Structure prediction request, 425 residues.
Amino acid sequence: MPKLTKRFVESVKPMGKDRVVWDDKMPGFGLRVQPSGIRAYVVQYRNAQRRSRRLTIGKHGAVTAEGAREIARQILNEVHDRKDPRDPVAERRALIKAPTMNDLLDQYLAEHVQKRNRPRTQEEIERLVARHIRPQLGKHKVAAVTRQDVAKLHRNLGSTPRQANFVLAVCSKAFSLAEVWNMRPDGSNPCRRIERYPESERERFLSAEELGRLGSTLRLAESDGLPWDINETGPKSKHLPKVENRRTIYTRSTTAAIQLLLLTGCRLSEVLNLEWKRINYDDGTITLSGTKSDRMGNAVRQVVAMNAPARKVLKSLPGPQNSPWVLPSRNDPARPLSKTAIEGAWQRIKTAADISDVRLHDLRHTVGTYAGQSGANAFLVRDLLRHKNLSMTGRYVNRAADPVRTLSDQVGRQIAAGLAGHSTG
Prediction:
């Protein structure tokens, strides 16, 4: 048997099938020559179970004969280590079969997000996973993702700190579950010790003057309509309707949605998904269709105190004889008003009211701000906005129902007065 040298390796002629030439100086180290002429260095050994294994070290040219010999020597030493013998072939096979980040994310979405998160949160997590996490980490093996990999992902989103931190939180939860699902060792979450970006909290709420402008705009929107924002010098300007016809009249569902956001402090999804069967005028309550869970995983019914102005808005709507939804779609009463429709309308309404920096969620923040300014304690404000996951026990209802309704009435009167253009002082 010859010693495998560069000259000898290049002199070996290919045959009609794979042939292996073994080195005469190092048992287990050899050269495999394929019929195509490709030459690769291999090492053969027996693992701890005495099974024969053959591992490819690398192609000739990419690695030299002497370099391959040294790698083979190191592998054989590790295989024959009495205290901690390795099986490189088994390790390589396990790595090939190991789950990727795409596998982990699929399981995370199916077994955690879709079962435990609310629809709006599900939608946002799925968007972040598809847009940011999969493109950068999806093909990586779960066990091979490092802190540097996650830090780079977080750093690339630095221009949007809140979104960057949310992506980091999603990754952290996915990797925590990877440990539970035996995809990574315990305590190996690569998101640990990655510093979150500071987030500037928005403190935007509507003043009494802004409420007055918004109220006037809403009344105008459903009566005469709001003027179009168009470029009269554009190439198609000659086809525009007459000036007096360049207005959009908004449905009562659209203007009522904005009023209910302000008067109830509900989230947008909660208002859009209101059903008439959940409105109880006798008790003065609105029971939301969605539920939350307490710390023990028990479902918690979400009840909103209905103040007098909110009742007035609801009474102004057509009612359940036309649609099961409080705010039905204009084109299909069998479906609720869509998030896209209300957000599109809000862009024009807030511009017309000269409050262009106000988001729909800031209407909820306005309710909380007015509640705080009324002198209500933190517990009542918390219960009014349902910020905490509290169990709806009898004790909770007895303690909070009347004070929260009183607070809701007080805040509702103040906001309704502002919308009507009256003094809120």
